[in-house]
Write a structure and sequence with these properties.
The protein has about 950 residues and is α+β, with helices and mostly antiparallel strands. It is built from 23 helices and 29 strands. The chain folds into five domains: about 160 residues, Rossmann fold, CATH 3.40.50; about 180 residues, Topoisomerase I, domain 2 (Orthogonal Bundle), CATH 1.10.460; about 110 residues, Topoisomerase I, domain 3, CATH 2.70.20.10; about 120 residues, Topoisomerase I, domain 4 (Orthogonal Bundle); about 100 residues, no CATH class. The strands form eight sheets. The protein has a seven-stranded antiparallel sheet with strand order 14-11-12-13-10-9-15, with helices on one face. It binds one DNA strand of 8 nucleotides through helix 4 and helix 6. Keywords: DNA-binding, Isomerase, Magnesium, Metal-binding, Mitochondrion, Repeat, Topoisomerase, Zinc, Zinc-finger.
DNA sequence: GCAAGGTC
């Protein structure tokens, strides 16, 4: 027997459909999800007996999200979210449903999709198809389209199975992707920036952007601005009243309404009172009805509950969903306001006849036969909201909402209220006035629907042709009044009208803008923009981007419709929209100060931050390099105290990889230059400014370099360990691993660099653990190798030779260009001089710039530097004394005779360095008698 | 910590 898997959008629908198709004889069994049962029954399809399994999902089975590399807020520049890869995955709480589908699909040959017949339903259908065909690729797939869940509609649907509509599903994919990309990018940008700019007010505030929430905010702001900008305008009108002693009082209004010209009105008024005799021209009587309410859809439920019950939309929907799951009312998310023909209204009304408040009214409806007043909307899936079961056991707002649904339903099924309207037209000296009255003949639906008021007004009896002198003829002044702020019902109407959100989400968007403090409520429950909401809208408006206007969403909706109809390609629409929004985003970032300025009107002066800080805050700074541990991007950041920099992994705190830059880095800025050598890339070069005198002479104080590993001198200057070292190089040799001096190769035996990859080269480091705060940065190559190669110029010192060894620790190689000379930083040949002054260095030779003092560079090099001391305890930081910032000391490196290097981490005090010269940083003399003062 | 859309 052929097995067919049927999948509906929710368990409730599966149950109903199975009931209808099986004639109430389906068997229920459990799936992996306790909420989504499996209903089985036999059915004759395609002229053969089939076993049907009907199960369900719970709305969307798959969710749209970024890859891990873009999921964290600081993991990337938000602009990259416009292009970052997006995946559809099954969230954890739906895994059980997916497992059920997979298991059932394996045993079935045919899949019939019974999801709701709207756009989202089609897309959910394709999610089901994706999951099922993944385990059963050769499954035949059909779509059942039904206008309502009634026996006739379901029978027609299964007799006319169709292919699923990819176009419609594509439109939803486009919508999902755009919502995610645009929402996430703008939200991150706004939040991260404004939290920094207004830390006192917004430090913990999420400042979201969404394609529905922003236009919703826009409606509130728009109305508020209308109210603010409103200027009352005076007008004048003539009012006539008459008192017919025993027969009552009557008031006539002027047919001209009101005039905004005082003198014009005055002229007419004077004309009227010149001859104030009134003549009754006509007395008209005509029937007047007050229409009963239309069948209830979600939007009306939300609006009416808000207006009549004073329960806000969010709360109403929450209650309605609870009543639905308890079986008291039908599905509350519906756009349909037409009762299906084959829905048995009589039965539903019958259930209510015993209620003490409205039971009698329900009985009367049954006598006359239910006659529902339908609207003109249908979502082709759910009927209007109506009671499905009687209860009198509810309390509080649940009771009020249930009662409203019942009364609305009964009112809708009964009759319009009937009355008679009387109009009396009079003239006074050629000006015309009229009065109207109402007599209610049959209240009908009003008896069960206290939410509508219709009050009669009895006019005194007047005869045509009769004449009388009115008791008063007045010229009154009035003035126009501002529109009122929006009520929740007004707001929902506007959202509905402009296609912002769906019936199921209006209430959520309103709640969102309340929760984000974009709007608030006045005492009489009217919406008023908050400072944040107002500032954001004004900020974007100032840029010329009307982000809060509904047309953006409307344009997208139009495109989505064209995708559904196959008139536009999904990829074209997607690319077009992404491009458009990305351009806006980039421009918004450029002009972000306009948002600051707008908000400053409300929050006071913004925090003064540098561009670098702001870029950093918004994760928009260019990243430095991929993390060697986890592969996520590392970016340049400022330390907490704003003194100094570090390069941190965006995977923090999961990944704690960090490169601390020394204190003598005064400024650092990532450039857009990408290093052509370093891998994995991209590795962006960093523009540094070093403290004067703190770095070796071959590194200028302003220097742009790569920290990816290709620039050995920079790596050493910054004391950066290579990323590969962590994997390939012993981070800290134990004493047993340390080579004894005797074991170390003699210089002549030492391998050339090409034979000894840097990553394999042993070095000494402080033996304290990484977590020990007193651990120092000591670093020393174990072989203390002499220079063997000359490096090509990439930093402007073509005539200088220096180590190509990573971490190479000596500058004693600055021996000139091979001709016995020494060149200084400015390219001049260094001048060999001798220390003349009395002191420890008296008689010692050194090279200096030959230019006159004040014009030359700061180059200084001992002439005998190659003969560096070998028994000197290396100061912290290797070749130059980093811990005593500002001191570059040529030739202070060497291992101790015993082959052990020792960091000074614990011996600083004992080895406290003698006072250094403020000019050359050498010991043994002061700046005053420095040999450089030649 | 982001959106909007389903749904429980």
């Amino acid at each position: 027997m052929v097995r067919i898997l049927n999948v509906a959008e929710k368990n409730d629908a599966a149950k109903t459909l199975a009931g209808l198709m099986s004639g109430g004889r389906s068997r229920k069994r459990e799936g992996f999800s306790k909420f989504n049962k499996i209903y089985e029954f036999d059915y004759n399809l395609f002229n053969q007996n089939c076993t049907m399994s009907m199960t369900s999902v719970s709305g969307h089975l798959l969710g749209c999200e970024f890859e891990a590399s873009h999921r964290k807020w600081h993991s990337c520049n938000p602009v990259s979210l416009f292009d970052a890869p997006i995946h559809k995955t099954c969230p954890e709480n739906y895994k059980d449903i997916k497992r059920t589908l997979e298991r059932e699909a394996r045993g079935c040959e045919i899949l019939v999709v019974w999801t709701d017949c709207d756009r989202e339903g089609e897309n959910i259908g394709f999610e089901v198809i994706q999951v099922c065909t993944a385990v059963k690729p050769n499954m035949r797939v059909y779509r059942a389209r039904f206008s309502e869940m009634t026996p006739g509609a379901v029978t027609r649907a299964i007799a006319n199975l169709q292919p699923p509509d990819k176009n419609v599903s594509d439109a939803v994919d486009v919508r999902q992707e755009l919502d995610l990309r645009i929402g996430a990018s703008f939200t991150r940008f706004q939040t991260m920036r404004l939290q920094k700019v207004f830390p006192n007010v917004l430090a913990d505030q999420l400042i979201s952007y969404g394609s529905c929430q922003f236009p919703t905010l826009g409606f509130v702001v728009e109305r508020y601005k209308q109210v603010q900008a409103f200027i009352p305008e005076p007008f004048w009108k003539i009012k006539v009243s008459h008192d017919l002693q025993d027969d009552g009082f009557i008031e006539f209004s002027w047919r001209r309404g009101r005039l905004f010209d005082y003198e014009a009105c005055l002229v007419l008024y004077e004309h009227v009172i010149e001859n104030p005799l009134a003549t009754v021209l006509e007395v008209k009587k005509k029937p007047k009805s007050k229409w009963r309410p239309v069948a209830l859809d979600t939007v009306e439920l939300e609006k009416l509950a808000s207006r009549k019950l004073r329960i806000n939309a969010k709360e109403t929907m929450k209650i309605a969903e609870k009543l639905y799951t308890q079986g008291f009312i039908s599905y509350p998310r519906t756009e349909t306001n037409i009762f299906p023909k084959d829905l048995n209204l009589r039965n539903l009304i019958q259930q209510q006849v015993n209620d003490q408040d409205w039971g009698e009214f329900a009985g009367h409806i049954l006598e006359d036969g239910p006659n529902p007043r339908n609207g003109n909307k249908t979502d082709q899936a759910h009927p209007p909201i109506h009671p499905t079961k009687y209860t009198n056991g509810l309390q509080g707002n649940e009771k009020r909402v249930y009662e409203f649904v019942v009364r609305h339903f009964l009112a809708c099924c009964s009759k319009d209220a009937q009355g008679q309207e009387t109009t009396v037209d009079i003239s006074i000296n050629d000006e015309y006035f009229s009065a109207s009255g109402l007599m209610i003949i049959a209240r009908n639906y009003l008896d069960v629907y206290p939410y509508d008021k219709w009050t009669g007004k009895i006019l005194p009896t007047m005869e045509e042709g009769a004449q009388f002198t009115p008791r008063t003829i007045e010229m009154n002044q009035g003035e126009t009044s501002a529109p009122s702020l929006l009520t929740e019902a007004d707001l929902i109407s506007l959202m509905d009208k402009h296609g912002i959100g769906t019936d199921a989400t209006h209430a959520e968007h309103i709640e969102t803008i309340k929760a984000r403090l974009y709007v608030g409520l006045t005492n009489d429950q009217k919406f008023i923009p908050g400072e944040l909401g107002m500032g954001l809208v004004e900020g974007y408006d100032a840029m010329g981007f009307h982000m809060s206007k509904p047309h953006l969403r409307a344009e997208l909706e139009n495109d989505l419709k064209l995708i559904c109809e196959g008139k536009k390609n999904r990829d074209v629409v997607l690319a077009d929209q992404i491009r458009k929004y990305k351009e806006v985003f980039v421009e918004a970032c450029t002009q972000a100060e306009k948002i600051d300025t707008a908000l400053a009107e409300h929050f006071g002066a913004p925090q003064q931050l540098s561009n670098q800080d702001l870029l950093q805050a918004t994760a928009m700074a260019i990243t430095v390099k991929p993390c060697s541990k986890c592969g996520m991007q590392m970016s340049l950041r400022t330390k907490k105290d704003n003194k100094g920099f570090f390069i941190g992994c965006s995977g923090y705190p999961t990944c704690r990889e960090v490169i601390w830059l020394p204190d003598y880095v005064l400024k650092a800025e990532v450039t857009e230059e990408v290093c052509p050598h370093c891998q994995p890339g991209p590795v962006n070069r960093i523009r540094f400014q070093f403290k004067r005198g703190s770095v070796p002479p071959f590194i200028p104080n302003d220097y742009t370099g790569c920290i990816g590993g290709c620039d050995n001198n920079l790596m050493e200057t910054l004391q950066i360990r290579r990323s590969s070292q962590s994997a390939a190089q012993p981070s800290q040799p134990t004493s047993s691993q340390r080579p004894a001096a005797s074991q170390r190769p003699a210089p002549s035996q030492r391998p050339a660099l090409s034979q000894a990859p840097p990553s394999r080269r042993p070095f000494y480091a402080c033996s304290k653990s990484q977590d020990d705060s007193s651990k120092c940065n000591f670093f020393l190559w174990a072989d203390n190798q002499e220079p063997t190669t000359q490096r090509s110029n990439d930093s402007g010192f073509s005539t200088l030779k220096y180590y190509n060894n990573p971490g190479g620790n000596r500058t004693s190689a600055i021996t000139g260009a091979g001709d016995g000379s020494v060149s200084c930083q400015c390219g001049q040949e260094g001048k060999l001089l001798t220390v003349q002054k009395v002191g420890p260095n008296q008689g010692r030779q050194f090279y200096a710039c030959p230019k006159p003092r004040g014009q030359g560079c700061n180059f200084f090099q001992w002439g005998d530097d190659a003969a560096a001391p070998t028994n000197y305890t290396a100061p912290r930081g290797g070749g130059y004394n980093a811990s005593q910032r500002g001191g570059y000391q040529p030739g202070l490196i060497g291992g101790r005779g015993g082959g052990h290097a020792q960091s000074n981490g614990s011996t600083t005090t004992a080895q406290r360095a003698p006072r250094k010269c403020g000019q050359c940083r050498q010991t043994g003399h002061t700046k005053k008698n420095c040999p450089m003062n030649r």
